[in-house]
């Protein structure tokens, strides 16, 4: 079922969902199940699975020259989504990213997803490769999420890369990312909203936000979206603080603001156990306020660690 249909069928009730990471290579499928099992009691209608681009290493060849070799740290998202749907009978939402994939590889992934009956995708540009100072498009791939979205939309219309006549139409429900505190590469909020609206006009049917710790940022973001004529569901992305170090790493990596009230309380914690307890309490209050606001879904970034999210959900659902 499509995400928008899950939301419509809920008739105003806030749903629960979460995102997980594919395990590191060498780990088996049970790793995925261990990250999902504790959260299934809250009846998630869908589970997001992230996609990760390749990394590179340089190996010395026999002639002394260096050869650039691509390798992946995690198994493919398509296979994980298939396993989730088969075991749990819930919808899996794979991320699609620009970085690390050619248009042909993207089309092949979409063909596989369509074959498996997976009809939701979250379209993202993706991050810069490790070691790069900025995002560099893959040769033969897409530079922007809007271009990737366009390829998915074309397949929904029966247009494939090398087909001269209309082929079988896919029917993907397409989601995109939203940034309550502005995408870090956008020069200003208005430019950010211009491109977000363009993606919705191109066919995006729902928005999932970057994590935030101040609900006011989300409320203002929703209001600004509506003012710009963006009417699709806007799903808040959420994550509890679990370590003191995250006061530094989360703002640096995700370009977000942690409220002074929260950071001050974290600084008073004697250890990370206390930080986790505080993080859960803070996010429970966030979620209650968001539910009162009428958000369609509470979407948790679990980082494949289900316990903090389980503690939060047990107080809400």
UniProtKB/TrEMBL annotation:
GO biological process: methionine biosynthetic process; tetrahydrofolate interconversion
InterPro entries registered for this protein in UniProt: FAD-linked_oxidoreductase-like, Mehydrof_redctse-like, MTHF_reductase_bac
Gene3D superfamilies: 3.20.20.220
UniProt-recorded Gene Ontology molecular function terms: FAD binding; methylenetetrahydrofolate reductase (NADH) activity
EC primary class: oxidoreductase
Residue ranges that the Swiss-Prot or TrEMBL entry lists as coiled coil: none
Protein name: Methylenetetrahydrofolate reductase
Species of provenance: Candidatus Sphingobacterium stercoripullorum
């Amino acid at each position: 079922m499509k995400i928008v249909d899950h939301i419509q069928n809920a008739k105003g009730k806030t749903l629960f969902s979460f995102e997980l990471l594919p395990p590191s290579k060498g780990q088996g499928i049970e790793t995925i199940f261990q990250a999902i099992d504790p959260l299934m009691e809250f009846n998630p209608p869908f589970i997001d699975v992230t996609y990760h681009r390749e990394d590179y290493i340089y190996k010395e060849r026999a002639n002394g020259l260096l050869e650039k070799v691509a390798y992946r740290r995690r198994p493919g998202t398509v296979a994980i989504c298939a396993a989730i749907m088969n075991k749990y009978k819930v919808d899996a939402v794979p991320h699609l990213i620009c970085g690390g994939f050619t248009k042909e590889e993207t089309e092949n992934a979409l063909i596989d997803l369509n074959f498996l009956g997976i009809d939701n995708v979250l379209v993202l540009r993706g991050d810069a490769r490790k070691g790069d100072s900025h995002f560099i498009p893959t040769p033969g791939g897409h530079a922007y999420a809007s271009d990737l979205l366009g390829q998915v939309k074309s397949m929904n219309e029966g247009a494939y890369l090398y087909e001269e006549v209309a082929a079988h139409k896919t029917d993907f429900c397409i989601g995109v990312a939203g940034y309550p505190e502005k995408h870090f590469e956008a020069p200003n909020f208005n430019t950010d909203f211009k491109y977000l609206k363009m993606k919705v006009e191109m066919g995006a049917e729902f928005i999932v936000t970057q994590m935030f710790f101040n609900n006011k940022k989300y409320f203002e973001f929703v209001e600004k979206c509506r003012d710009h004529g963006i009417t699709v569901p806007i799903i808040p992305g959420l994550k509890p603080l679990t370590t003191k170090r995250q006061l530094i790493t989360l703002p640096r990596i995700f370009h977000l603001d942690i409220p002074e009230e929260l950071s001050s309380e974290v600084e008073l914690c004697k250890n990370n156990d206390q930080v986790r307890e505080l993080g859960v309490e803070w996010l429970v209050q966030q979620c209650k306020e968001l539910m009162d606001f009428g958000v369609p879904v509470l979407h948790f970034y679990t980082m494949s660690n289900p316990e903090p999210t389980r503690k939060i959900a047990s107080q809400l659902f």
